[in-house]
């Protein structure tokens, strides 16, 4: 571990996408604000592509936050009837300009593409394309999808998508735009989210829009309709949309971690808003493991919603036990020898006046390596807490993600090879309870069958991605995750 | 009103200062982290000056956040036994490089100076100095103080401060460093905060430090001791400090708004941590105006602490009614015709699933012009709230600040010339209660006599600054506020 | 006149273009170095687009010099078998990002386009396209050409060019690239330059390339073959090129000022290298107006080559009478009251030791407003020159350019309404001789019939662009020049 | 060798300094323009410090060119009666912000200092100061001089200089400013240049100014008076200057390479303007080694002046055989495999039409490693030159510089261990003549006794710096050269 404040001790999410077909509206501006709402899904780069019907695709993308990449002049240089957009998270080393999105290609047809997820068979697909003489400008697996679609002989883009989709293995929630359509499609397992919304016109026809999360709809005045189905190819058209299911028979495997942590609390997924679902996770936490306590405090902000629910269920008072510094930056000075012990304090400052002498229930969403949690417990002890009862609104994380989320290795995970009691001892907590998988699914009102919870269970839903085989993805796919 | 998301509908605070005398410690690094903790007091520029005893003052300052201005190389080029630092808030137009701090001057003596506050007699003092041939590099009133001290004939800097302090009219919490001392001083009214802390050594002598708020001490492992007294001149020395009161007889007038909004909730002032004091303001709000309700929600983050307290006092459930977008930027695209009605939604997204059908108590810290509050009420209505009861943890703001805080003009203040009922009607709230001044002071555990609450009462504590006379400061002091 | 050193007292040239079809070579790298050689034609922005055969067009363009816009990573993200490039000069106000080139459009076909020149019928063409629903991302007339070609129904790009070319009025030396061809074409009058070169392979087939000037060929190891003909459409193909003349009957009108000043002295045009042609202009200057003198000095660098020739013809010694500051920047501090009289000295420092007491022949390429020349004469007088005989290697400039060059208005031209003697008096020169038009053409070895010399003669070669009508272009075409 | 165009095959000069005492003038503006004239001596960083009499020193310095570092606002924030300035050349690795100048220190006295040269006893001096507790912000030997002066107990700065100067070993042309004086001083050997100029007022008293080269005076309207003497301490005062010689008995050793290459041709040194001196070097070259030839061409720009002189002496025609690209940038793309053979062509493009079939005399100022010259000869051969006679206006460089100039190691020098005939063969030239040392001194009108020509002769004029001992400077003084 290096810089304690950069050491986000939790999994990292990957990318947000957006698409809209809305002649007579300012589609670039709508994309801008939608991406702003999706900013939490990627702070590394942002991009927008627009096209008039029958016209030219224009795209602008760069490294930085949405508000840094675009200004009024640049938005004005993006005219059109439809738009797609992208925000990208990136691990160090692959943060090159050429990996920003939307990707624009013009092989047989011109198109722009924005992708969230990662392909398992990227290497094979790229090799195939290279043999056919297809050149690549980037190292992202997203460009492979773009190349497959841009070189495809089908007349209509949605036919190209329908043909290509079954050849893609892995996770992909993708939006592609040509000069006459915006097509959204999702892998047959539905690993990453993708939602459909509608923007009602006054005297106008409705306009349809897709986004990684429904919070993007709220900001642009659209309404959430439903999630795009796994294996669905949905084409936005004038005043409506066409849809077909091209790969419907696969086992669904939506990432359960979106409910727990990734998505914004104001997003709707599986028919529920996550603030409410996470609140219920907190309630369930209480019911599974009640404890005598004086005060409930969240780890801000990841534990906020569950702490609300737990406190309500327990009828216990709640307060802020830490104040979070909102200015934590990407590049940061090392604390140096003297301040090393301050560690996490750069991010969270505990409030002795609030916690001293209290029996605390401390609520967070998950524990990966445990470094952050260990420091939190220590800071609360130093601040005079009488007892510290950890309540985590997810089961123990014991297995790496093979579908695009950058978690630690199994060996680094604190719950790997330890009982809950051993983890509690390791963290120096008076008690520790992880929410059961049942508790998670019940809070959301859904079931395991259609979800991926491999990071908790080790049961990988996609064929050929069981844990023993996992090494190869890391080896073969350097820099290919977007 | 222009861009709704930039329109912070509340008063704006001004600058944070820091000082430390700690031979054998990395003083530049300590200053860096202390400023990082004070970042909420100023995001426009940051600077650090250091000096070895008997050595050369070195300074580095620039526009930007602390983490943007400094890197490891730059910190290493700031050696020394003592340091001061500054973060600055700035209104548009005066955000030039030359107004960054600490200011370094070398007239008769070399010194560096960091200042929070503003002088009322800046114009007169500067004219006097110019007549004596003193040149100025900036337009800030802080440089006037620096010039008075740097040109002063007294041998010791603290004697120069003691002589100059009575000539300064207005608000100033100031730290000045020469090659042998760090001196902190505060105006006789004590308008702006300044605290004293101690950094215990293991085998070493203690090191003393001063900062605008005690949260800076927490980050660098120091302990809060007490506030610097109004009119006190405190000199940090080797293993201790010297103090004298040079202007003790004035009426004290600490800004009550620091308790309510400006300072971080984890800072200690007047013997209390503000999260607790603000929680009690929420409790008092409930006791002053109880109402039948289903749920308490804060306006994040300004209403968080008071909402905690009110909910505890009322034994009512609490939840997040809005999700706040953490990526709101300084420069931002106009929403355009279509999205104009979205307004504040760029910053706050309401949660219908949480608030629909509920009788809400909505808690915030203050209302200035009312634009934000009006939109909040409207958004909650649109989200299905059954009743909206506004509870504000401060009295109605009716009078401008003459001591350095950039509030609106009296005419723009919604409470100016309106009864509380009229304001409630104007905001379309079902009920509205402002916390009484007594309620504020009781929560903090202090009294009016030693504070300034002119923005609520119109009773300006400094001679010659009553409201009728106020126009002249704005006219005569362009760009002079820091 | 504002800043004397920014006041280039001569006409300004506009843009450089490049194209190459060279499978198996690093085309992006070749384009980079070619643009570097053409940098003198535009310092405002630079861009490169590449495409593999049958593949996707990739483009990268930005404001700045070639060496500032590109780095190794960016070049590597531009794979392909062919490339085009552009450097752009821009007047203040239109230097937006969206006006950089190559322009990429993907209406019916995807293409990238780089253009030097300006259209006279831009407004009409754009209006027509807009009626058909074509959207534009920029304000440049270059995008109009791109849109006409990208929306054209012809199967092959060269057929689209052949059809569109006759509809374009004005000056255009253009390179367009699709996924299977690079096509270069030039307006029927051949106003702006465009040359063809070949890059011999060792065992490979030759690769062909086009550029505004042949100096670009030298840098990448290519050989100059010939100029593209006015009205010619030349398609670069695998190991060769196809050509057709689509508008051959028009009067040719190549800009004679390219010979005199715009092009680099090492470029070949009309079968001659310009250093030699300009040297002959100097010789002719001497023969037309010999004078007793001691020393020949150039105005650096514009008068260098002609001064060489004049000195050789006269068998007179030559020396540097001025040293030129090579660091003159775009943004520059005003000299202030005291230094105003220093004026041009920021750019040129005279050498009294060289010129004092001497009868000088001072050689420059042209005089537009005369401000620079007047100061040069004065500086030489102050430095002690005994006599100053101005010799200008172009006729008097009396008429504005209607084809894309930003000269002054007629009223500002010093030769407008003055005899040569009056101009000499105005400039305080002992004598002044302008090279005759015959002298210019003889030096190049060509004739008036195929050239435009309207700035000297007022005889505008394109129909409908005679001087009386000129006002309308300025009025109707704001920001449309590239 | 890496990037051929960055590979300046010649010695590199180091830093330019400026000082002025001119109450009632805009001293910051004068410094700005003077530094602009000295820009050729350092493009890495620029800085200006100003002070009013009895007032505060203000300084602004940053990496970049003069025109990039300063703007109007920044100049306006530098008021005062006197100013000093600095431009800095830097080798890779030490180009940190903290090594920019002027250095400001405020130990016992506040001062700003600008230095050209390098100290031989920097390590010893710094160790001594550190023992006394003096801290350093940078790694430059310039800060050591600043610290010695700032900590010195003498009342007047010039007395401090007089005391410190004899303790400094090495090369230093230095300007130091306090709040009441600008003092210029030069090492007793006078290794690096420093000139005195005067700015006449109209009704005012004259103002005096110092600069590395007199070309700075020309730009600000000042007149060159004389060079500062080796060992002289010159204090600029109101309407005059005071001077004393504190170390006059040493052997003078002015760097002869300033005449040959470093200084601008319009600068005056040793009573002559260098354009004329270099012209005479060219004349002497002809007289020492006449040859039958058709044309004289310079290597631009370093050979320009000598080529002028040689052609005049030989009465041979002269022309440009190469066109130089003026846009060569610091960071530059590698040419890649294919273009590697193009090499130097990125910088110089030969003109076959000028040189083909001709017997050429090619003139340059010096040869260090010979890589550039070898390529130049090859390019001319390829362009068809019949014969190539190299004429170099300096003797063979065979020994490294120990006084601050970054030449190659002895082993890399082409003339090391080779006769002139062997060098000619190595370069593939038909003949080669180096100007004799006598020829150099005669051209300048001075003698060896007062100069350093160790790079040619190996006779190092300073005690203890003979060649055998040279290794230690490189080892002991990492990053200490400015």
Protein architecture, described:
4 copies of one chain form a homotetramer. Chain A is of the alpha+beta class and 482 residues long. Chain A has 2 domains: 16-253, Glutamine Phosphoribosylpyrophosphate, subunit 1, domain 1; 271-458, Rossmann fold (3-Layer(aba) Sandwich), CATH 3.40.50. Chain A contains 17 helices and 23 strands. Chain A has a 7-stranded antiparallel β-sheet with strand order 3-2-4-1-10-9-11. In chain A, α14 links the parallel β21 (387-392) and β22. In chain A, α9 runs antiparallel to α15. The longest helix of chain A has 15 residues, at 274-288. Chain A is elongated and about 70 Å long. Residues 1-10 and 469-482 of chain A have low confidence and may be disordered. Chains in contact: A-B, A-C, B-D, C-D.
**Radius of gyration of chain A (Å):** 23 Å
The CATH superfamily title of the largest domain in chain A: Aminohydrolase, N-terminal nucleophile (Ntn) domain
Return the average pLDDT of chain A rounded to an integer: 88
Task: Quote the CATH topology of the largest domain in chain A.
Answer: Glutamine Phosphoribosylpyrophosphate, subunit 1, domain 1
| Number of spatially distinct domains of chain A | 2
The overall strand count of chain A is 23
For the sheet with most strands of chain A, the description reads: 7 strands, antiparallel
Regarding quaternary structure, how should these chains be classified? homotetramer
Strand content of chain A: 15-25%
Helix content of chain A: 25-40%
Query: Any idea what the CATH architecture of the largest domain in chain A is?
Result: 4-Layer Sandwich
């Amino acid at each position: 571990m290096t810089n304690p404040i950069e050491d986000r001790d939790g999994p990292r999410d990957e990318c947000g996408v957006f698409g809209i077909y809305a002649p007579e509206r300012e589609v670039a501006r709508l994309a801008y604000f939608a991406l702003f709402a999706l900013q939490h899904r990627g702070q590394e780069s942002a991009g927008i592509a627009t096209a008039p019907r029958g016209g030219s695709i224009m795209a602008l993308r760069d490294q930085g936050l949405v508000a840094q990449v675009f200004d009024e002049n640049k938005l004005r240089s993006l005219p059109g009837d439809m738009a797609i957009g992208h925000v990208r998270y990136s691990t160090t080393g692959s943060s090159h300009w050429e990996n920003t999105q939307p990707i624009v290609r013009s092989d047989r047809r011109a198109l722009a593409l924005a992708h969230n997820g990662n392909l398992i068979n990227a290497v094979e697909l790229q090799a195939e394309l290279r043999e056919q003489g297809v050149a690549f400008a980037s190292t992202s697996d997203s460009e492979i999808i773009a190349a497959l679609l841009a070189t495809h002989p089908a007349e209509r883009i949605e036919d190209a998508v329908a043909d290509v989709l079954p050849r893609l293995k892995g996770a992909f929630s993708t939006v592609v735009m040509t000069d006459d359509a915006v097509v959204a499609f999702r892998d047959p397992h539905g690993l990453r989210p993708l939602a459909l919304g509608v923007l009602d016109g006054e005297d106008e026809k409705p306009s349809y829009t897709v986004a990684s999360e429904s919070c993007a709809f709220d900001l642009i005045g659209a309404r959430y309709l439903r999630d795009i189905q796994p294996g669905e190819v949905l084409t936005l058209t004038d005043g409506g949309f066409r849809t077909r299911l091209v790969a419907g028979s696969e086992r669904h495997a939506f990432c359960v971690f979106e409910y727990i942590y990734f998505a914004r609390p104001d997003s709707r997924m599986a028919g529920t808003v996550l603030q409410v679902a996470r609140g219920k996770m907190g309630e369930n936490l209480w019911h599974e493991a009640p404890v005598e306590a004086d005060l409930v405090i969240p780890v801000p902000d990841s534990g906020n919603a569950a702490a609300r629910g737990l406190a309500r269920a327990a009828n216990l008072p709640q307060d802020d036990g830490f104040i979070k510094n909102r200015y934590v930056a990407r590049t940061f000075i090392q604390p140096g020898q003297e301040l090393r012990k301050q560690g996490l304090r750069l991010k969270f400052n505990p409030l002795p006046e609030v916690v001293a002498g209290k029996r605390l229930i401390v609520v967070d969403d998950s524990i990966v390596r445990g470094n952050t949690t260990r420091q939190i417990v220590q800071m609360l002890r130093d601040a005079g807490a009488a007892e510290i009862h950890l309540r985590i609104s997810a089961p123990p994380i014991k297995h790496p993600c093979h579908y695009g989320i950058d978690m630690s290795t199994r060996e680094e995970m604190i719950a790997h090879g330890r009982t809950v009691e051993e983890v509690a001892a390791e963290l120096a907590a008076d008690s520790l309870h992880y929410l059961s998988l049942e508790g998670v699914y019940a809070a959301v009102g859904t079931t395991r069958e259609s979800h991926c919870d491999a990071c908790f269970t080790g049961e990988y839903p996609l064929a050929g991605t069981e844990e023993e085989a996992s090494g190869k993805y890391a080896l073969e796919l350097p820099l290919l995750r977007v």
